[in-house]
Amino acid sequence: MAHTRVIVNPIAGAGKTAKKWPQIIDLLRSLGMDFEHDLTEGPGHAIELAKSAAKNGCELVVSVGGDGTINEIVNGLYDAGSIGDVTLGIVSTGTGADYIRTIGVPRSCMEASRCLTSSGRLTVDLGVVEYTSNGQMQKRLFVNFAGLGFDAEIVRATTQEFKALGDTASYLMGLVTTLVVYKNKEISLTLDGEVGERRICTILMSNGKYGGGGMLTAPDADLGDGFFDVVIIGDLTKPDLLRSLPRIYKGTHLTHPKVSVKRAREVEIRPVQPMAVQADGELLGEAPARFSVLPGALTIVV
């Protein structure tokens, strides 16, 4: 077996990962895997652990946690200059599990653990977002999707105001609170050099098909085609937005006259009013923001 490091986020899945980990570690050992493991101690720690694993010659790094854990590990591998040399394994123990829905990694953490010994590999694109934080331009990679507008404000409310309620309850409270106060935004949108002005509710740069805990936000997205599926939800009224939300779970929202999908390699968004930026469900900073694709940048065990 390749030199393997397993990075575990014990608080993922509303703390359920800590309870599942003893079963997972026993199974990995029973499969004959030779590995070391680390438990994260807070936000950003998985980035540092992944950097260390890459610099110590690990060929396989396994994420045990949610989409946020995957995001941090990928950013750590990239920061170490080893994104093309290390294979990623995923045992998803988070609540949403949106990324693996597109990839096809089993939802069961036991079945996903068995997949780590597979010879199957999937090469996927990554997204890069450049955004503003504390007056400085920052850069972050994302695996699944990034967004601005209504979507990012839900993330803000969920993570800053209602996190203590647990994943599902905090998301619902964040959704309701944001729906009450949110106002659509005027933006300048550049897609592969083509500039336009529009008023939007939200805009998503999608690598994967799913977001928000099972919403089929970008039904035709392809993780390896070198493009974002840019989902633009236009100037919807709040009653119309509320009526349309259930359709997103089925992917039928794309038939709405104020919803469109564009394919682009590079996207730039300049808002008239302040807009938050999120990536893989983590609040990053503010727009203006630029998004680009890193084609075929990551290899995943499947």
Number of strands: 15
Shape: globular
Beginning-to-end CA distance, first to last residue? 16 Å
Label the structural class.
Answer: alpha+beta
In percent, how much strand structure appears in the residues? 35-45%
The biggest beta sheet, please? 15 strands, mixed
- List unreliable stretches of 5+ residues: none
Quote the average pLDDT: 93
The tally of helices reads 8
CATH class of the largest domain: Mainly Beta
Oligomer: single chain
Order of helices and strands: EHEHEHEHHEEEHHEEEEHEEEE
Model description:
The protein is of the alpha+beta class. It has two domains: 4-119, Rossmann fold; 126-296, Tumour Suppressor Smad4 (Sandwich). The protein contains eight helices and 15 strands. The chain has helices at residues 16-30, 45-55, 67-79, 98-103, 109-115, 150-160, 167-181, 238-248; strands at residues 4-8, 35-39, 60-65, 87-92, 121-133, 136-142, 145-149, 185-191, 194-200, 202-206, 228-233, 259-264, 266-271, 276-279, 282-301. It has a 15-stranded mixed β-sheet that branches. Helix 1 packs parallel to helix 5 (109-115), helix 2 (45-55) crosses helix 3 and helix 6 packs across helix 7 (167-181). The longest helix has 15 residues, at 16-30. The model has no long low-confidence stretch (mean pLDDT 93).
List the helices and strands and how they pair.
Layout: E1 4-8, H1 16-30, E2 35-39, H2 45-55, E3 60-65, H3 67-79, E4 87-92, H4 98-103, H5 109-115, E5 121-133, E6 136-142, E7 145-149, H6 150-160, H7 167-181, E8 185-191, E9 194-200, E10 202-206, E11 228-233, H8 238-248, E12 259-264, E13 266-271, E14 276-279, E15 282-301
Parallel strand pairs: 1-2, 1-3, 3-4, 4-15
Antiparallel strand pairs: 5-6, 5-15, 7-10, 7-14, 8-9, 8-13, 10-11, 11-12, 13-15, 14-15
Helix pairs in contact: 1-5, 2-3, 6-7
